[in-house]
DNA sequence: CTGCATCCCGGATGATACTG
DNA sequence: CAGTATCATCCGGGATGCAG
């Protein structure tokens, strides 16, 4: 019922039977950021048809990966413990894909949840542990994120709060994270616009979040 | 040409555009074991239609994941360095799927390459390092494997060689690896048949390869 | 308004036959 | 052996409808 089978008995085929269908892992990716409502998922996955979203949610639920939770008149979807164990998979996949991520195509947008997971992918806890705790406010295209780094811990949420550095940028954040573009030059050339706080903190940001090809 | 896009700009969507199509990651899995010819891949993926295999190979080649290599009159497919970087993804996926792998269904078969990758998934290098080097010959259903463990290194190949323990079993090897079935009981009940060497070495095998739900 | 279900169509997938 | 060609089928995409 979930996915068509591959006729093989093994861990990888089993996994692909559960989350190998189109869109399935992207739903999991967004739910790794936090519980989401049907409409929120639809907004975060702009090209997904509503019937496909409904079908995937049903399949993922039957597979024990997520739960429908009625929460005060609305329904939210949240990962089960087994679903949350997909985080290493999603991070590994994101790291691999990030390495050959080029410039964005015209129809490609940046969503808050995908950006959040990309930041988690690029996060270097061991580097962060050597640096002071820092809070950033980053607007990456349409995504507004509050990024708090404290020791080896990373917390990315939507919304605002007091921060050490606030900046605005676009898809070029990729070149900052990959090391192609130095933080100083990013500010000089206007690729990153600092709204608040000392621009030097962008160096710390680039050290904390780094993933090279 | 490769995959349809998801309309998003990010590492995970990029990865899924490259290897998210049906069968793609299974081809990668088999090539992680070693270079393979077209016919070998077809045998290892019993249900794949030949046109789909041909299409995937072309797409994966264009994506820079594998190469067609003419090798003395025949063509072999092998992963590029970028393709080999998918190993963490495949192992993470395999580990996740293995945890809820049940009993095999009727049409499900065990192939040498899928078994090899499952063993790599379950391999515990830190445990193996504490144990003497050991060579096993395992026949798991139709798959005949030579398994050599030396310190933190694991080498699984087809074919034969001198071994410390030779045994035969079936899909129940999963219960041995998951810890559901103790090695001693596996031998007593005939689930594992020891062909050569001391049966106690099966304990060492189960310690070396372990992955619980 | 949210949370889906239905309908139709195009393109990807699957089975089989065939060829250099 | 290593694919290509053909055709049927099914899934995914887009628009629309509708109930709580």
TrEMBL record, chains A, B:
What Gene3D superfamilies does the annotation carry?
Winged helix-like DNA-binding domain superfamily/Winged helix DNA-binding domain
Keywords assigned:
DNA-binding, Transcription, Transcription regulation
**Does this entry carry the keyword Transcription regulation?**
yes
In what residue span(s) does the HTH hxlR-type domain sit?
A: 10-105
| Source organism, top-level taxon | Bacteria
Q: Quick check: keyword Kinase in the entry?
A: no
| Entries under Pfam families matching the protein | HxlR
What does the record give under GO molecular function? DNA binding
Q: What protein name applies here? A: Helix-turn-helix transcriptional regulator
Task: Tell me which species this is from.
Answer: Lacisediminihabitans changchengi
């Amino acid at each position: 019922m979930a996915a068509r089978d591959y006729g093989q008995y093994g861990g990888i085929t089993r996994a692909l039977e559960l989350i190998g269908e189109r869109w399935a892992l992207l739903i999991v990716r967004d739910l790794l950021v936090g519980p989401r409502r049907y409409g929120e998922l639809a907004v975060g996955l702009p090209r997904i048809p509503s019937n496909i979203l409904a079908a995937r949610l049903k399949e993922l639920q039957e597979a024990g990966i997520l739960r429908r939770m009625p929460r005060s008149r609305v329904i939210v979807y949240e990962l089960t413990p087994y679903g949350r164990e997909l985080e290493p998979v999603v991070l590994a996949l994101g790291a691999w894909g990030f390495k050959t991520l080029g410039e964005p195509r015209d129809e490609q947008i940046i969503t808050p949840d995908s950006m959040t997971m990309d930041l988690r992918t690029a996060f270097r806890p061991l580097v962060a542990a050597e640096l002071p705790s820092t809070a950033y406010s980053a607007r990456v295209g349409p995504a507004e994120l509050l990024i708090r780094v404290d020791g080896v811990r990373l917390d990315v949420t939507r919304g605002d709060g007091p921060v050490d550095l606030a900046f605005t940028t676009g898809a070029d954040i990729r070149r900052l994270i990959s090391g192609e573009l130095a933080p100083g030059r990013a500010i000089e050339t206007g690729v990153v616009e600092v709204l608040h706080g000392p621009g030097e903190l962008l160096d710390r940001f680039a050290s904390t979040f780094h993933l090279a090809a």
